Amino acid sequence: MESTTEQVALTREVVIDASPETVWEFLTDPEKIKRWKGVLVSFDATPGAAYRIEVIPSHIAAGEVVELDPPHRLVYTWGWEVGGPVSPGSTTVEYELVPEGSGTRLRFTHRDLPNQEAADSHATGWDHYLERLAIASAGGDPGPDPWLTERME
Length: 153
Description:
The protein is an alpha+beta fold. It has one domain: Alpha-D-Glucose-1,6-Bisphosphate, Chain A, domain 4 (2-Layer Sandwich).
């Protein structure tokens, strides 16, 4: 069996109609995180602190906060506790918040993914949740997460 050291990164940019300070709150405040992603959230915005987000029942993301530069940059490790394509702490998620007019350009990177299949799987999730983040942080209501309601039916 041939081993590979392929590492894949996923990048996205989203313009959000909210200040970097407001978007920052939606990335670091557990109650605000739940408005766009997750049913149970434990997140301490302190370097070295562990976090845990039950995104949907039985799909739990976990890792450690690596870097914070409020309200400009947030970096944490990422992975799934059970059954996901990456284990907790094995990949890195980075949010960069850049003022743009009266809003914010969010530059998102998920790196160290083991292969394209893992990147594609995560792209589907991040596209879904970054859209919900943009709505919530701009003061809108993204509504119930359809992925959550689909699983409960």
